[in-house]
């Protein structure tokens, strides 16, 4: 059945339902895309808009139905995130937990990953920000292709997003300059805007960062990060709701009746080959609650595109015979291409933070008082505004670890950090208007003692520890084994300890400004020596969920490289990896902008060669 030709009803109107495949029925398309997540829906939509026949296979469904308002309202974004390994919602998250991490962490943590149309763009914390010029210079030199440098990637960053500048009248106690030339009037469909309310603690965090030598810059999308600024957020300014790859790319394509054929609630279990040429995939139509599942085949006349994310893209490569041959043999898997980098080189950004009581309303106000909580819901429902329209204060600081803390690093760590170019920050400061405590989930962590709390988080954005993705078995029905190996590199441990001391300095500024109470509420004064600090960081650390690099782009002579500069798998025909797993490096900060630009770039390349 070729569904691409089956989209007209008898009265000539396309049926939206004909953009959904029939799981369990074999079918043929030009392009079969595995994963309807951030990268997958972006590339699938662009190819379909260019009149190519495209199927996209997604294990999840529609998050708007499967997770109610919790995936849609900005203020609820931390639900089902945080470190508790059993805190997940199985209809929209894979329920992956890490291996028990080495000391000082000594725990396994839930690693949130979207299992839904939209993928992790439907789970994330909304921050839209771009890499630095020199980090993308490093990307392009690692892959031997300057089309990946900042200037050449900029048109793809621009074309994926529609930018709505901040409403200046909301910033009476603050200021939110944004570089408008970073965006284009004709961009889209992902919406980037600012919340319909300004968070009071954020306005104080802004002053503190400026006082702490992180001057305010004009946004975080022009290739510069050192300093501080309000970040754009993937929130639709028309309704104050999440803008994901599903609500933007897919829905606009469905509305225009030019969309890929979507197989939802369908698991891709293997890539199929004729010799070393990818020809399609084996898929499983979900069987749940005792109903048996049904296997079927989707054939790709031109290419299979793997966009299953940083964990499942390497898993599917390995299950399909692409990886370290001797490792695959231990699972009795055949080997089509010996690429030892598959599942290696996992980059991530760990995060931890300390808390103080503050003199402005934060999420604690709702946690402390059910009436206030109900009022906040009403405000959001009536106006799309108020605290529930905000994720975090939205104001972020970026720096290389300054003196005197830098002198606290060993010479070996200082040397190791030279791997990062001058404009690549080592720390991202993420203030949160809530009590994070041992768990990033602000809904559960608040002490509810009548105080308003805020947390100042440090994320390590120049990490040197590298993790792995391994197979649990030879079946796609078993989740892969994830070991982020956070803090296993000495430099990461040292920079974490020193950044905590810097964190206390920034809190001292907030105390001086009169917004924070002088006592540290978390972790508190008992944490003083480097050893105590590291132990506490291990106990409280979690992640910003930025896993990348596990099917690395690189040159053929790079022993860890899996795909070339066009995202094509080495040694295999008609197979590309288009998602965060193919990043050669994890640029500083939040990756969704780069995933979108990546998809736009490869889509354009395919369309140009059509
Ligand atoms: C809680 C959280 C907060 C974050 N905050 C931010 C932020 O504020 N800003 C930012 O820029 N980034 C943020 N990120 C990271 C960012 O969202 C991800 O890096 C990005 O979305 C990854 O895109 P991707 O296409 O690589 O993978 P995904 O978007 O995860 O897509 C992979 C898709 O493949 C599907 N899939 C996997 N295996 C199969 C299979 N076998 N068969 C069928 N389908 C399959 C999955 O269900 C998923 O839909 C956050 C992530 C999380 C989880």
UniProtKB/TrEMBL annotation:
InterPro entries: FAD/NAD-bd_sf (IPR036188), GMC_OxRdtase (IPR012132), GMC_OxRdtase_N (IPR000172), GMC_OxRtase_C (IPR007867)
Active site: 546 (proton donor), 590 (proton acceptor)
Superkingdom assignment: Eukaryota
GO biological process: secondary metabolite biosynthetic process
PROSITE patterns linked to this entry: GMC_OXRED_2 (PS00624)
Stretches assigned to the Glucose-methanol-choline oxidoreductase N-terminal domain: 309-323
GO MF annotations, alphabetized: flavin adenine dinucleotide binding; oxidoreductase activity, acting on CH-OH group of donors
Residues that bind FAD: 591-592
SUPFAM superfamilies: FAD-linked reductases, C-terminal domain, FAD/NAD(P)-binding domain
The keyword Lyase is annotated on this UniProt entry: no
UniProt keyword annotations, A-Z: FAD, Flavoprotein, Glycoprotein, Signal
Named cofactor requirement(s): FAD
Keyword Manganese: no
Protein family according to the UniProt entry: Belongs to the GMC oxidoreductase family.
Protein name: GMC oxidoreductase
Lineage, highest ranks first: Eukaryota, Fungi, Dikarya, Ascomycota, Pezizomycotina
